[in-house]
Design goal:
CATH topology: TIM Barrel
Largest sheet: 8 strands, parallel, barrel
CATH superfamily: Aldolase class I
Strand content: 5-15%
Number of helices: 11
Bound molecules: phosphoenolpyruvate
Shape: globular
Order of helices and strands: EHEHEHEHHEHHEHHEHEH
Strand order of the largest sheet: 1-2-3-4-5-6-7-8
Number of strands: 8
Number of domains: 1
CATH class: Alpha Beta
Helix content: 40-55%
Structural class: alpha/beta
């Protein structure tokens, strides 16, 4: 009954070394198989640290797993004298199909601006990586009642100058910062309110047709116990999961919305 194929995405953040990563993906794949997971109905992706990607690629390719994977960030540059950075080209060659862009921890800890995120989206698209653009407000903004305008401004900043054709596969993850890793979950109504506002805004910016194809995820303390209610929102097309994606059984339950 979903209009768009739901996406359940696991953001591992800076957790799991390369050996733990392989074990976690293996266990996740078994658990999903045991549960008879239908990947055509619900897409499952993981976003491990960069150093895990080679191991995950080997496992996924070798065992023909249907789990998708991507990185938590990328450089806006392609190659060159950018010590410590990782380019979209490298990610593409490692079989990544998606990439997180503008996670609130990148915005906060690394001061990533809308302009930089715009360049990162362009870099992702240049290497056929689906950008999963994270937006969302902090507690102060929420308390001031400015969460919708704040989040839509982030969206506009990151999408500046990009066309509907370029963004055809865009995924937007609405993650209220006050609900990330705090155990505070925005209510299903809050998730739907923002997902619908994002879609309406994209319809205005581009077209109804474009907006109808964009997947909008909710993220912020999603667990197997609250995912079903959140996904009932007509405009909520999946979840970006942090803490609860580090445990295979729990993440598999989220992916099957049990
Ligand atoms: C996240 O980091 O994207 C996130 C949603 O984290 P958590 O699920 O732990 O709140």
């Amino acid at each position: 009954q979903f209009v768009r194929r739901p996406l359940i995405a696991g953001n591992w953040k800076m957790n799991m070394d390369h050996m733990q990563a392989v074990a976690l993906v293996q266990k996740l794949a078994w658990t999903l198989d045991d549960a008879g997971h239908d990947y055509d109905r619900v897409q499952v992706s993981v976003f491990p640290p960069f150093t895990d990607l080679r191991g995950v690629q080997t496992l996924v390719a070798g065992d023909r797993l249907r789990i998708d994977y991507g990185a938590q960030d990328l450089s806006d540059k392609d190659s060159g004298a950018y010590t410590g950075d990782i380019s979209g080209r490298f990610l593409q060659r490692l079989g990544c199909t998606q990439v997180l862009i503008g996670h609130s921890e990148r915005r906060e800890v690394h001061g990533e601006s809308d302009g930089l995120l715009n360049a990162k989206i362009r870099a992702a698209l240049a290497h056929e990586l689906v950008p999963v653009l994270c937006v969302g407000e902090g507690l102060q903004v929420r308390n001031a009642g400015e969460h919708v305008s704040h989040t839509l401004a982030q969206l506009d900043g990151a999408l500046e100058g990009l066309s509907a054709e370029e963004l055809a596969e865009l995924v937007v993850a609405y993650e209220p910062v006050w609900a990330i890793g705090t155990g505070e979950v925005a209510g299903p109504e809050d998730a739907q309110e923002m997902a619908s506002a994002i879609r309406a805004h994209l319809a205005q910016r581009y077209s109804e047709e474009f907006a109808a194809g964009v997947r909008v995820l909710y993220g912020g303390s999603v667990k197997s116990s609250n995912v079903a209610a959140i996904l009932r929102g007509a405009d909520v097309d999946g979840a970006l999961v942090g803490g609860a994606s580090l445990e295979a059984e729990e993440f598999a339950k989220i992916a099957t919305f049990e």
